[in-house]
Design brief:
The protein is an alpha/beta fold. Helices cover 48% and strands 11% of the residues. Bound molecules: 5,6-dihydroxy-NADP (NZQ) and zinc ion.
């Protein structure tokens, strides 16, 4: 196991009706005037924004509203939010929504206290200062409620890039599983897929002797395999929603990723798909992961075979472990299809003729030098091969 520092100071408030505590929590974490940031309308329609604003009013915390965050959040609204926060002297940002809203809130939080262009943080500069951020989560998926990360799409060139820093870890996150009951089944399934991807991206490591994190990841994957179909069959199953919501947080606050190298090539390859086609990130991952895993499997057959046996219940073929490894990847693919995720480019709305442009953006865009690194380093030819496997 490698040396590590694990710092995860977010206060999680979990359970039914917990959104009524938003105002008290903003105050507790130092907010005297808040920006309430939300998405395309689901939080308004469900009455959630009304309940959150009532809670701030009860605590005497003034606020300004900024809605309109799109899935795969854009830089344009971030610039607007930064201007608004400066004009209104906002000192706390409350994100009410999913990963897209939270990531946009984090970008505004970092950009408001920075003299340069906030995009610097999405081109590699670490985030050291930001306004405090709190969240009320409405979808179990991205894990942004407990992560130090934010992913934004720059409209000019449609580059989708991530930024990181402990300063943007939420001070608090309110997790009420009942809020996720209004999700369309496709979004629920995309969230499940993203959570599983966050686990797999950590499982694919080149670090030896990491039993504790291997076992944590396997437990969370098994939870998703158990709870995923239950929540797809019955969207109002509160307990299944609750287990998925907490698994989603644990999958991505890095408690399962400490002390080990991680992959993230599936995410990088997917990000170009959601940037170009505006597909759901999780749906893009459903198509991407099996292709990437099949492509890199030979790098460490036994790691894939281990997942196949421990997570998917495959029989170990000791003479030909590659058969076991392959069976595990197929089991993942079938599971994702069974919950309603796409299998290929056509089902995702992607086009074969765009592959050169996808590879260019992935390997050359925004300062990259012709490859992406992770479990295996992939050059432009590898990435083109992987995209072709998804057709
Ligand atoms: O905008 P509204 O109207 O709210 O609709 C949203 C959106 O259309 C809807 N939705 C959310 N909660 C709902 C709901 N509809 C009904 N009822 C509810 N309770 O769901 C749609 C998707 O929302 P979004 O926030 O985009 O989903 P998700 O949480 O999957 O976030 C995806 C974004 O997070 C990034 C992705 O790249 C993508 O841009 N990621 C962020 C990470 C991080 N910050 O750590 C890591 C992830 O790997 C990921 O890359
Ligand atoms: Zn993800």
């Amino acid at each position: 196991m490698e040396n590590f520092t694990f710092y995860s100071p977010t206060c999680f408030v979990f359970g039914k009706d917990t959104e009524s505590r938003a105002g008290g929590l903003v105050k507790r974490f130092g907010g005297t005037k808040a920006l309430i940031h939300y998405g395309g309308g689901s939080a308004l329609r469900s009455g959630l924004i009304g309940r959150v604003t009532a809670s701030l009013e009860k605590e005497g915390v003034p606020y300004v509203l900024l809605g309109g965050v799109k899935p795969n959040p854009r830089s344009g609204l971030v610039y607007e939010g930064i201007g608004l926060c400066r004009r209104e002297k906002i000192d706390f940002i409350l994100a009410v929504g999913g990963g897209s809203v939270i990531d946009s809130a984090k970008a505004i939080a970092a950009g408001t206290v920075y003299d340069g262009d906030f995009w610097d943080f999405y081109s590699g500069k670490p985030i050291e200062n930001a306004l405090p951020v709190g969240t009320v989560l409405t979808i179990a998926a991205a894990g942004s409620e407990g992560s130090p990360d934010s992913v934004i799409t720059k409209e000019e060139g449609m580059f989708k890039r991530g930024a990181s820093g402990d300063a943007i870890r939420p001070r608090f996150s309110i997790l009420n599983p009942a809020l996720t009951q209004t999700l369309p089944p496709y979004q629920t399934a995309a969230g499940i897929t993203d959570i599983m991807a966050h686990l797999y991206e950590r499982y694919l490591t080149n670090t030896k002797e990491v039993e504790v994190t291997d076992r944590l990841i396997e437990a969370l994957l098994l939870t998703m395999i158990h709870e995923g179909p239950r929540v797809i069959a019955n969207p109002n199953n509160y307990d299944a929603r609750a287990n998925i919501m907490w698994a989603g947080m644990m999958a991505h606050n890095n408690s399962c990723g400490v002390g080990r190298s991680q992959d993230w090539n599936s995410h990088n390859i997917e990000h170009e798909l959601s940037a170009l086609y505006d597909c759901a990130h999780g749906a893009g991952l459903a198509v991407t992961m099996p292709a990437v895993f099949a492509y890199v499997m030979e790098h460490d057959v036994m790691r894939f075979a281990q997942a196949a046996v421990r997570v998917w219940g495959c029989q170990m073929d000791f003479a030909h472990p590659e058969n076991t490894a392959r069976a595990g990847i197929e089991a993942l693919r079938s599971f994702l299809t069974s919950i309603g995720m796409p299998r290929n480019f056509a089902e995702l709305g992607a086009r074969e003729e765009d592959i050169p442009a996808l590879v260019e953006a992935l390997c050359r865009g925004d300062g990259r030098q012709g490859s992406i690194s992770g479990f295996v380093t992939l050059n432009e030819e590898d990435c083109a091969n992987i995209y072709r496997m998804m057709v």
